[in-house]
Amino acid sequence: MIKPLGDRVVIEALAKEEVTKSGIVLPDTVKEKPQEGKVVAVGTGRTLENGQKVALDVTVGDKIIFSKYAGTEVKVEGKEYLIISERDILAVIE
Amino acid sequence: MIKPLGDRVVIEALAKEEVTKSGIVLPDTVKEKPQEGKVVAVGTGRTLENGQKVALDVTVGDKIIFSKYAGTEVKVEGKEYLIISERDILAVIE
Amino acid sequence: MIKPLGDRVVIEALAKEEVTKSGIVLPDTVKEKPQEGKVVAVGTGRTLENGQKVALDVTVGDKIIFSKYAGTEVKVEGKEYLIISERDILAVIE
Amino acid sequence: MIKPLGDRVVIEALAKEEVTKSGIVLPDTVKEKPQEGKVVAVGTGRTLENGQKVALDVTVGDKIIFSKYAGTEVKVEGKEYLIISERDILAVIE
Amino acid sequence: MIKPLGDRVVIEALAKEEVTKSGIVLPDTVKEKPQEGKVVAVGTGRTLENGQKVALDVTVGDKIIFSKYAGTEVKVEGKEYLIISERDILAVIE
Amino acid sequence: MIKPLGDRVVIEALAKEEVTKSGIVLPDTVKEKPQEGKVVAVGTGRTLENGQKVALDVTVGDKIIFSKYAGTEVKVEGKEYLIISERDILAVIE
Amino acid sequence: MIKPLGDRVVIEALAKEEVTKSGIVLPDTVKEKPQEGKVVAVGTGRTLENGQKVALDVTVGDKIIFSKYAGTEVKVEGKEYLIISERDILAVIE
Questions:
Q1: Are A37 and A15 in contact (CB under 8 A)?
Q2: Which position among B1, D19, D68, D77 has the lowest Cβ density within 10 Å, counted as fewest Cβ atoms?
C-alpha cells in the first residue's frame, strides 16, 4: 500500500478511449496525458507556518481533474500511479 | 457537476462574434482567447497561513473579466470549461 | 459597471497630445504608453495573511501615475480601461 | 503635487558636473545615471503582514544615495522626478 | 554514523534488476536513477517561523518513494547514501 | 557623514598588496575585488514582519569579511565606500 | 579569529587522497571539491520572523558533510576556510 506524505495524493489515471474527429483511434504515444483520475490514497495534510495541520479537501474514491503534467509517475506492485500535490488538483467531479 | 478546490473557480467562456475592421468574420483559429466568462462554480476559499479560510469574492452567475491565458481548459460531459484561480479574475461586470 | 477584485483598480488612461522635438504630431502607434490615468473604480482591498483586509490608498476620481506596461487592457461597453494592481500605482497627483 | 503611495519616495536627482580624468566635460548622453538625490515627497509607509504600518526612515529634504537604475522616471508639470521604493535608498548623507 | 540535519533524511537506495521489454539486462550506466529507498537516519525536524519544531513523518526503516534526481549522493565508510529533504519524499510503501 | 538605512552597513575596503606566485605585483585592474573591510557606519536594523526591529550584529570599527561583488560602490567627499546589506557580511575578524 | 554571523559556520575542509579506479593519484586541478569538513566556528543563530533566535544544530569540532559548491572560500592568516550557511550542511558524521 502507498501512503502519501503531507499534502500529497495518490491517483489512478482514468483511461479514456480517444477518437479523433475523423474517427481513427489513436495509439498511446500520440494521446494527450490524462487529466482525470481517481484518488486512491491521501496524505495527512499540509502543515501551516503556525504548526496547524490542514486536512486535504479530497478523499479516497473522489473522481478528480488535475493539471496536465503535474506529479510524478510511480509503479508499485506492477501498477502505475501518479503522486501529486493537492494544489495540482483543480476540481472534483460529482 | 464540477466542484472546484480551494480558491478555484469554474468558468464558462462567453462567446463574442468577432468582426475585423474590414468586416470579415474571423474563423475560430485566429480569434483571441476570450477574456469574459460566467462563473458556474466556486471553491470553498483560500486557506491563510493562520489556518483561517477566506471565502471567494465572486459567486455563481457573476459575469467576470479574467486574465488572458490564465487557467486550464477542461471538458466535462462534452462541455468546455475553464478552471482558474480567483487571483486571475480581474473584475466583475454588473 | 466594472467592479475590480481585491487590490485592483480600474483606470481610464489620460490622453496626451504628443509632439516630438521637431514639432511633428506622432500617430498613435509610435506613442509611448500613457503613464497617467484617472481611477474609475477600486477593489475592496488586499487580504493580509492574518485575515485582515487593508483598504486601498486611492479613491475614485484620483489622478494617478502608474508603472508603464503594468496591468491588463479591457474593453467594456465600447470603452477602453486598464485594470492594474494597487502596487503598480506609484503616486497620486493633487 | 505628487503624493507617492506606500513605501515610495519622490526624488529630485542632484546634478553633478562630470569631468573625466583627461579633463573633458562629458555631454549628457554618456554620463552615468545619478546616484544622489533630494527627497521631495514620501509615502505613508509600508504595511506589514500583521496590518501594522511602518513609517519611512527618510523625510522631505533628506539628501540620499540610491541604487543606480532603481525607480521610474516621471515628468510632472514639466519637471523630472524619480519615484523609488524606500528599499532602493542606500543611505542618507548628512 | 550519519546524523542528518533539520528536515533531512539519509536513504539507502533499493537496487532493482532492470530488464527491458526485449529481455536484455541493462548495464548500470543506462539505468534510470532509483526512485525507491530505505530510510537509515532522520533529522530532528523542520523549524517553523514561529520557532516550533515539526518532527518528520518518516522513521528509520521506512521504505519510501522519492522524487527522481532529488538529494545529494554521499559516500560514508565506503557505502553510498542519498541525503534528501523530507519534501522530496512522495510516499511510504507499507 | 553617510547614515545607511535599515540593515545596511557602510564599509571601507581594506587594501592588500597582491603578489602573484611568480612575485610580480599586479596593477589594480587585474586584482580581485577586496573581501575584507572595516565598518564605518551601520543602519538602525532590519524590521521583521511583526514590526520588531532587529539591531545589526556588527558595529563601527569591526573588521569584516563580506561576499565578493556584494553591495554598491559610492563616492562621498572624494572617498570610496561600499554599502552592503548585513546578510552579505560573512564574518567578523577579531 | 573568525566569528561568523547569523546562521553561518566556518569550516576547515578535510583533505582526502583521491585515487581513481585505475590507481592513478589525480593532481589537484581535476579533483572534486571536498564534501567533508570540520566546524571551526559557528554563528549566533538564525533570527525567525517573530524575533526569536534559533541556535545552530552544529558545534565546533563536528565533522560534517556539506553541499558541493556551497559557501565562500576565505583566507585568514594564510589558512583557507569555507564560510557556509547552516542550511548547506547536510549531516554530521559521528
A1: no
A2: D77
Q: Is A87 helix (H, G, I), strand (E, B) or coil?
A: helix
CB atoms within 10 A of CB D82: 20
Cα radius of gyration (chain A): 15
Residue A27 lies in a domain: no
Q: What is the CATH number of the domain that holds G59?
A: 2.30.33.40
> Could you give the C-alpha distances from E66 to A76, A94, E62, E71, in angstroms and in order?
13, 32, 12, 9
Instruction: Say yes or no to pLDDT of C76 above 90.
Output: no
Look up the ipTM and state it: 0.78
pLDDT tens per residue across span E77-93: 888 899 999 999 999 99
Query: d(Cα E88, Cα E90) in Å, to the nearest integer?
Result: 6
Using the Cβ of A74 and the Cβ atoms of chain B, whether some distance falls under 8 Å is answered with: no
pLDDT of residue A12: 94
Domain assignment present for G21 = no
First to last CA, chain D: 26
Longest dimension (CA), chain C: 56
Cα(F45)–Cα(F57) distance, rounded to whole angstroms?
9
The per-residue pLDDT for F56 is 96
The dihedral region occupied by E13, where left means phi > 0, alpha psi between -120 and 50, and beta the remainder, is beta
Measured over the CA atoms of residue F56, residue F61, residue F62 and residue F63, the dihedral's sign is positive
Whether G30 shows a pLDDT value over 60: the answer reads: no
Tell me the pLDDT of chain A averaged across its residues.
84
What domain range is F61 assigned to?
8-93
What pLDDT does residue C77 have? 80
Within an 8 Å CB–CB cutoff, is residue D56 touching chain F?
no
Q: What is the mean pLDDT of residues C53-64?
A: 96
Comparing CB atoms, the residue among B1, B49, B74 nearest residue A35 is B74
Segments in chain B below pLDDT 50 = 31
**Mean pLDDT taken over chain E:** 84
Cβ atoms of D84 and D65 closer than 8 Å: no
Pick from G5, G10, G74: CB nearest F89: G5
CA dihedral over D59, D65, D66, D72, signed as positive or negative: positive
* Helix, strand or coil, per DSSP, at residue E86: helix
Chain B interface includes C42 (CB < 8 A): no
Q: Is residue F3 part of a domain?
A: no
The answer to whether position F2 is within a domain reads no
Which pLDDT value is given to residue D54?
Answer: 94
